[in-house]
Design goal:
Length: 361
């Protein structure tokens, strides 16, 4: 049966590769149109525009992999079924699932590659894209400073209420809270209404400091006219698309650390937890699409190759619509479980795939 595996792989891979390239180019064209229509980026040099599109491509590949798997498996099995080759396998005493297994393993390989892209390639490329945007004076208009986003500065976890850009290297800070818990015997909390950040130096005026020691009822309260911290930080760490958006520039360890920091400061970490789970659930869809599409491809093969394309698009659109409903709409609820709503689309389509696989025989 190894010959069957090789035959199925030869059918899937060219379609997968062609679909991968076509969908990627479509995403890049969409990115170019966005930059071309934006007033802030219209005068950016052509080379910088091309670089922005290329560095932004890995983030879009996270969606390209499952789409290419769905198209590749649908079209390949649809053609195999139309050529009566599945009938020949049955006549020889084989099962239809024998043809599906190579498709499933192909989905596993694509999922692993997608996982590497999401966890390694995308964070690096997104950071480079943001650096390029800042150097091209694009980010000042396209991005926004994220309020109450925890930032690590030395031993302090810092939450900033609002940030205003005064000039090229100076930021004005308001409603800043600094927490230091490095010493287990002391909890130090510093608050300041106003402050500035300039070239690695943080200055807070009229800062109030509270030191709490476990086992003591009284806290030590003090005030200072100016509180200074030295700690250089990239501006992109304080900028992003907002609290309700994913942060693809963060790796898994960085996301885990940010979730811990937000929980320490009492801030909501739902969006970060959803982003973390999506790093695993989206690659898993490559496997699930490879499981779901064979049934429809084989059953509807008599309608021609176009049916395979339609099947793939319906399945992909169905999945991503459910994903958006779960992670963008349902996620706004205060009592939502981030893990459950992120994995719910995968569980639904996995159940569909398992049920239809039993009927396929």
């Amino acid at each position: 049966m190894r010959r069957v595996d090789r035959y199925v792989y030869r059918e899937i891979f060219p379609i997968f590769l062609l679909s991968f390239l076509i969908v990627t180019v479509l995403f890049q064209a969409d990115a170019y149109l966005f930059l071309a229509k934006n007033e802030l980026t219209r005068n950016v040099p052509l080379l910088a525009t091309v670089q922005l599109i290329l560095w932004g491509t890995p983030e879009r590949l996270n969606l390209v992999f499952p789409i290419a798997v769905a198209l590749g498996s649908s079209l390949a099995l649809s053609r195999i079924s139309r050529e009566s080759e599945i009938t020949a396998i049955r006549a020889a005493g084989g099962k239809v699932s024998r043809v599906v297994w190579p498709v499933l393993w192909f989905g596993v390989a694509a999922g692993l590659l997608n996982f590497w892209s999401i966890t390694k390639l995308t964070p690096y490329a997104t950071k480079r894209s943001q650096d390029l945007q800042m150097s091209s004076n694009v980010l000042a208009g396209m991005g926004t400073f994220v309020s109450n986003r925890p930032v690590k500065i030395g031993s302090y976890t810092v939450s900033i209420g609002s940030i205003t850009k005064l000039d090229e290297d100076t930021l004005k800070l308001r409603d800043t809270l600094l927490v230091d818990r490095t010493d287990e015997s002391n909890l130090s909390v510093i608050s300041a209404q106003e402050g500035t950040y300039q070239r690695g130096v943080w200055r807070f005026s009229n800062a109030s400091s509270v030191i709490v020691k476990p086992g003591r009822d009284n806290a030590i309260v003090s005030k200072s006219k100016e509180f200074v911290i030295n700690g250089k930080i990239s501006l992109r760490e304080m900028m992003g698309s907002g609290q309700d958006k994913d942060q693809p520039e963060l790796t898994i360890p960085e996301l885990v650390e940010q979730i811990k920091l937000k929980r320490t400061m009492g801030a909501s970490s739902v969006r970060d937890e959803i982003t973390l789970h999506k790093m695993f659930s989206i690659p898993m869809m490559c496997v699930i699409f490879a499981l779901v599409t064979p049934f429809f491809s084989i059953k509807l093969a008599k309608f021609g190759g176009f049916a395979g394309v339609m099947i793939s698009m319906v399945i992909v659109m169905g999945y991503y619509n459910i994903l958006v409903i779960c992670t963008e709409i349902a996620a706004k609820s205060a009592t939502v479980n981030p893990a459950l709503i992120t994995w719910l689309p995968d569980m639904i389509f996995l159940a569909i795939g398992l049920v239809f696989m039993r009927k396929l025989e």
